[in-house]
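User: what does the whole thing look like in 3D?
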Amino acid sequence: MGTRANGALAPGAALAEIETPALVVDHAAMLRNIARMAGHAAAAGVRLRPHAKTHKCAAVARLQVAAGAVGVAVQKTDEAAAMVEGGIGDVLVTNQVIAGPKLARLAALATEARIGLCIDAAEGARAASAAAVAAGSTLDVLVEIEAGQRRCGCPPGAPAAELAALVDALPGLRFEGLQAYHGTAQHIRTPGGRADAIAGAGRAVRETLDALADRRLDARTVGGAGTGTFALEADSGLWNEIQPGSYVFMDADYAANHQPPPFEQALFVLASVISRRPGGHAVLDAGHKTAAIDSGKPRPIDLMAEVGEVSDEHIVLAAADALPLGAPVWLTPGHIDPTVNLHDRLIVVADLDRGAGEGRVEAVWPVEARGACG
Ligand SMILES: *Cc1c(COP(=O)(O)O)cnc(C)c1O
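Assistant: Here's the predicted 3D structure for the full assembly of 374 residues, as structure tokens:
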């Protein structure tokens, strides 16, 4: 790895020594985001289980847990394995896991750590039960209800309670509670729109809690919420565990939802000018393979320049011809999670002053769960 870009970068290196393109974390801003979210959860009296699909990095997860998080949430079995290997003792897979080999891996992990997963169908419950029995472990189960997103989740109310009763009866499973996550609500632009969406999800939770009570089943956990809506769930009196992920680094999409944004941009794509046309444009050494564009193109900061064409390995900045060759350009990714998934490492910088071009490499963290799609 020492022969790859930034492979030999060591703590103490100057900002100018970072090869581009790179993902640079503003250490202080990230720590402030972690502390701020932990403070919100503590003030609201809810547990915080940050979603690690955002950073896929055990070092970040350990900081979140050290700041009070009960553990982390992940989306994939392989992400769960990376987090357990990285020292996280409590991991919830906020997704359906159906395939036998994946369930076997999860059940094996549950002999080392507390492992939970979401279930929305009886077949999934039976398959998870069989895997846990075979491994001699116990899997915690959140019955996932349809909370407005129309993706995963069984119908709320009586059908969810019926599934919970099955989970409760099956060996190797422990019925822990409900998962009610409204993903599309996170990105609704208006506060009123987000409040309406979470109120609807809350009605689904309430209906299901009532149906559980009819069966004398108790939901110890009601989980959900992301960076766009966490305050609504936390104050609802219904959810008791929030799972925001993006807040730790933020992105341009989330920054557009709140003025001013409640969290700071803490992760940047650092690129360099590799070509320029006097009287025209500048071309950067970053593209689709450096920053995801599903939620919009990366935005240059500290610089008035329009992003033009983005291709695999190039970004054209219009009207940026004043930038000399080699000039560093800082970009905010449109969508943080798929951007991190493109990189092997996060370059963590202390005392970052972008304008002055100053900062010191504090650490280089591997993105252990990068590419963990299984
Ligand atoms: C993605 C996700 C989150 C975190 O959402 P952010 O918008 O990144 O904060 C929380 N819970 C679940 C189930 C998710 O899929």
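In plain terms: Residues 191-214 form the longest helix (24 residues). Residues 51, 53-54, 73, 94, 181, 183, 186, 226-228, 243-246 surround pyridoxal-5'-phosphate (CB under 6 Å).
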